[in-house]
């Protein structure tokens, strides 16, 4: 974890309001676990809080990484205007990321993503695939326009897509695939997306094998301000909880109260 | 001579830059970025008698040139703080200013007594922006008599100097400052956050779960400067100034208003290295402005104030 | 149906956008940029009994996401205001809210009486952030009893509804709001500026000649939202909200906090067309947020508040 | 007076920290009197008050104008980063500018400028010269590095320069030239610069023929906020004063209290 400037290699709008930003810099050497995140200072002095964005993929050889984000408000909109050669002040990599060590070759991993929760799963899929683990992905998007990275994930295994309006894949929630996995029994489930989706995932799958990536509003991003906490399940202490930025963003479903 | 050194009751600081309470935890996290011995002092996270879980989330929201927070004094309680947090900081050559909070006079008395035991705690910062359970939740810091009473309780417990941290959410901050000075405060720290709110246009409800939060950052700097200026003209004890400090110019503006040291809060979130950077950049800016040493600047400002009287 | 129309005592407004007092003179200057009939209403520059020259310069300073001003109520006095300034605005189809200031109860009584005579003055905005000469310069607006007394004096003189403009520089704004409601205020306007200061590092003196100035702009918006939210839950008279409004989202945030119309101050300086732009942009943003009409939004927020009780 | 976007044609650092910015746009058609000013919105949303900068020269044919400014603080520093093609939100032209109608061919005009007070006199010199009026200029700068536009003014008449440190022209204040005008008796004096200089000018020359350009901190720039006032000389009214942005920035020395 350090603070450093990274250089924009390229930026592409890969779906409606969804941007893929490729960054280069020595910080990449510190990146490892899938779904760690970067805490990004928005250029200009107007916005003072950094923006947390997950690392979507890492290319250690080229010292490059990719982040994928949706333009939500002012900060991401400003970042989306950057072009090759621009610099970004980055704090990272932060957080713990998805664990994969507990899985062995030939085992099954189910990836579940909703909207902008999909990209953080990409580096995970890549690493799982490289390890010989079978990957099935279930992704939900709002509509066809916002679907992205389907092909990229298809390189690692089957991809099931649902859209809210049925304009692509099945119509409705991605949760409908949970009962139609055709005998694919996951040894681990990895999910990232809106809170409602995470709650559904936690209810459906074995909470000791289910890994959820949380989002909380963050200030410091490094554990000092206690702004981003999440309650521990069965905590006996009167004060204890997890800081999403340090102990998370990924937790086993059995550890936390959603 | 160290141009940046400043001297306050209990605090012989190598420089005036102090991470503000609640914005720096107990130092361990920022200790991964730089050597904490560089700092003038550290104002630790609020410590209460019992452990506290704090408020539900969201606890944070961004605002123009500022932010809201409603952490709710989450901390492991004074026992753990003294046994683990203070000792973990002993490896650094940096004095601690222990931020103490509570809901009763006895809370303050006991926590002040306990934190005074840590050898590296050189002063206490009394957070009086806390609701008084005996007075229907009214903050200790908004009434001069209550502020004086809680100061006395703290002074009884403490064996190190006590700096009372004033709330800006009052009609007349000078009145409160005078009251705590009369009650024996060794110094004043100001300002705490302004009470603010943001509403989510989709849910039509406050973004922060606690509804209101404390506003900090550059947005509040003009209020901080005004209050420091007024209080410096009304009391004879030193002031640790804070509220929106991001640059060396902000640091020096606080001194010119009447501060003798400076707390840095929200800026740590924007730039984790802001404190060592300020320390490094101060001498050059002092050269440009013809300031030999900060202690000299403090004395000159003080003289100016006395001449006004 | 006009989706933007709102209805308040004395004020049937075609839209809720009102340039705030002191930021729009008596309209003539902005009238060179656009048709003032577009506006919901105009809050005129503070008017006093006698002419006032105001404060020495510098009267202005910039701050992070805001500004300080210390104009000092410069105005030609109520006689000229009524005879020349109000009449000059008669050619527009826009109600005036006359901002009234003074140093004595009688000042307020007389000015309210005089401005009520202008046919286009549909309401009075009582600026009680003025020092009371009888009470050693203490502001009328910082003490509930004084605020109530000045409200009564104004109500006696006025023949149009009186909106009392609250100062945010108080410990408990709810207490003041309740006091002026009890004293007969027809509505509340809030917030006036926070007291702030900036110091020039070269001269080591405040930039503003008057030393302190009023802080306005986006920096104070979270404080304004918090106070509107609190006051809306404590009184039954409508609130005209202001403090840092720059965008349609800011306008709607004020409504969701509990306002029934919105004042726009500093934003006029950044963009002279900000008021007509806000009026133009409101409908689309309302569509996006599922808001049929502002009056409906006001009613829904009000119902929500009553349900909380 | 309107609000409009203008396009940057070019930007050059013509002396240390002094920038010449050429702008293009229809607003130029409204520009006339020398030393009116533009109220410039600083790009980005960080700084909310506009910056007043005088118009240094006007090229009506090309619909271009030039402003010259020193980087003082954040706002001018941000503006100094603009390059050709960038846009600026401009309110203007504002204020009254220097009058020249009272002068006739063959008469004498003395121009006095200090530092960044020099450029506003340039359009004036051009217009005076075009009218057949004899122009002599006396300019003070801090040092050689900060001297600019000497040649440009020399095209219209004699230029006397003083620098604080004597690194160029005479050493000391520009005021020393006031007694060494070699028989040049001005029919009008035009001055722009720091307050101290204006006070000296007002004391030396006939205040009914001396025109001073004032600077005050401004908010609205159009007369509405009363932030930028200046006291009237011999005002009998209890409230009256001038607004520098509307009744100024140029006043006859006999009208005002400096
Ligand atoms: C660990 C983590 C990883 C994330 N990874 C991604 C990602 O890979 N791609 C992506 O598109 N988004 C991601 N997000 C969400 C992203 O941080 C927000 O969309 C972004 O901060 C919005 O900033 P803004 O200025 O555009 O919006 P604004 O609404 O203007 O932001 C205002 C403030 O709210 C905070 N905020 C707003 N929305 C969120 C949110 N959902 N979560 C946390 N803080 C928020 C901002 O950080 C800022 O402080 C992640 C969030 C977290 C906590
Ligand atoms: C009518 C008029 C014409 C001017 N013409 C020129 C010109 O042609 N060239 C030039 O270099 N400068 C000129 N100035 C001064 C110029 O406006 C300031 O240097 C500039 O606003 C500084 O902005 P900043 O953000 O760089 O500095 P900052 O110090 O960061 O500005 C902070 C605030 O103070 C105000 N301010 C600071 N200095 C001045 C000043 N001297 N006068 C007025 N407001 C100030 C700014 O507008 C801003 O609101 C003129 C000023 C006026 C009033
Ligand atoms: C996240 C956060 C937590 C805070 N916690 C405390 C606290 O525990 N005790 C306290 O006295 N002040 C607390 N404060 C207030 C700061 O110490 C400081 O007074 C205030 O933020 C103004 O300084 P700034 O503008 O530099 O942030 C907190 C502020 C923030 C932003
Ligand atoms: C230059 C200036 C002059 C003002 N003059 C007055 C005034 O005469 N009377 C008054 O009640 N408020 C006055 N105000 C306060 C505004 O009306 C408004 O309450 C405040 O600025 C907050 O709104 P804003 O943030 O949109 O500017 C003035 C504000 C400014 C910036
Ligand atoms: S963001 Fe500060 S503790 Fe997580
Ligand atoms: S700047 Fe507002 S009146 Fe001149």
Automatic annotation (TrEMBL), chains A, D:
GO molecular function per UniProt: 2 iron, 2 sulfur cluster binding; electron transfer activity; flavin adenine dinucleotide binding; metal ion binding; oxidoreductase activity
Binding-site residues for [2Fe-2S] cluster, renumbered to this chain: 220, 225, 228, 245
Protein name: Dihydroorotate dehydrogenase B (NAD(+)), electron transfer subunit
PANTHER family, per database record: DIHYDROOROTATE DEHYDROGENASE B (NAD(+)), ELECTRON TRANSFER SUBUNIT (PTHR43513), DIHYDROOROTATE DEHYDROGENASE B (NAD(+)), ELECTRON TRANSFER SUBUNIT-RELATED (PTHR43513:SF3)
Needed cofactors: [2Fe-2S] cluster; FAD
Domain FAD-binding FR-type: 1-100
Pathway given in the UniProt record: Pyrimidine metabolism; UMP biosynthesis via de novo pathway; orotate from (S)-dihydroorotate (NAD(+) route): step 1/1
Listed GO biological process terms: 'de novo' UMP biosynthetic process
Function: Responsible for channeling the electrons from the oxidation of dihydroorotate from the FMN redox center in the PyrD type B subunit to the ultimate electron acceptor NAD(+).
Cofactor note: Binds 1 [2Fe-2S] cluster per subunit.
Record's keyword terms, sorted: 2Fe-2S, Electron transport, FAD, Flavoprotein, Iron, Iron-sulfur, Metal-binding, Pyrimidine biosynthesis, Transport
Subunit structure of this chain's protein: Heterotetramer of 2 PyrK and 2 PyrD type B subunits.
A Pfam short name: DHODB_Fe-S_bind
InterPro entries attached to this UniProt entry: Cbr1-like_FAD-bd_dom, Cyt_c3_hydrogenase_gsu, Dihydroorotate_DH_ele_sf, Dihydroorotate_DH_Fe-S-bd, Dihydroorotate_DHASE_ETsu, FAD-bd_FR_type, FNR_nucleotide-bd, PyrK_electron_transfer
CDD domains in the cross-refs: DHOD_e_trans
Recorded family membership: Belongs to the PyrK family.
Keyword presence, Cytoplasm: no
Residues noted as binding FAD in the record, renumbered to the chain: 51-54, 68-70, 75-76
UniProtKB/TrEMBL annotation, chains B, C:
Cofactor comment text: Binds 1 FMN per subunit.
Keyword NAD appears in the UniProt entry: yes
GO CC list: cytoplasm
Domain Dihydroorotate dehydrogenase catalytic residue range list: 4-286
NCBIfam families on file: PRK07259.1, pyrD_sub1_fam
Family: Belongs to the dihydroorotate dehydrogenase family. Type 1 subfamily.
Assembly information from the UniProt record: Heterotetramer of 2 PyrK and 2 PyrD type B subunits.
Name by which UniProt lists this protein: Dihydroorotate dehydrogenase
Protein's organism: Trichococcus patagoniensis
